[in-house]
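We modelled the chain as a single entity of 150 amino acids. Its sequence is:
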Amino acid sequence: MHIVDKALTEKEQIIKEESDIWKRTVVLIVLIVLSVLIAYYFFRKNKKIKKDRLRMKEEIEQMKEELNQYSQNSSDEKILNPELDLLLNSNKLTDRQKDLLILLADGLSNKEIAEKLFISENTVKYHTKNIYNTLDIKDRKDFFKKLRNN
């Protein structure tokens, strides 16, 4: 009986070892499949990121071209606008006010003008108010009307 129990115990142990081997094999296969799926996911995501970057670079280049064209058109308009030339050549305004007037004509905001001229927004507002008083203009809208009409 002892020999039969020992044989039965050995047989159960062999079956258990085989079962453990199968379990380990299945777990290993699942881990391999998961790692392949994760690698594929990151590869696809990386590919999408590269496409997005390329698309953004192209859009930025297109915007730069449009801005260059716009700035060239603005420069041409400045030269072609006799009213602005008359204002810039008059002795009524200081050089700093003339610089500010050019930027106003370009359609820049007070903040953008301040950044370009390295002054505060309040200084821009001060100069703008003085320009308006000197030229008998009420506001920016009136300034652009005056430029457009001439």
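As a brief sanity check on the tokenised model: The chain is about 85% helix and 0% strand. Residues 56 and 62 are 10 Å apart (CA to CA).
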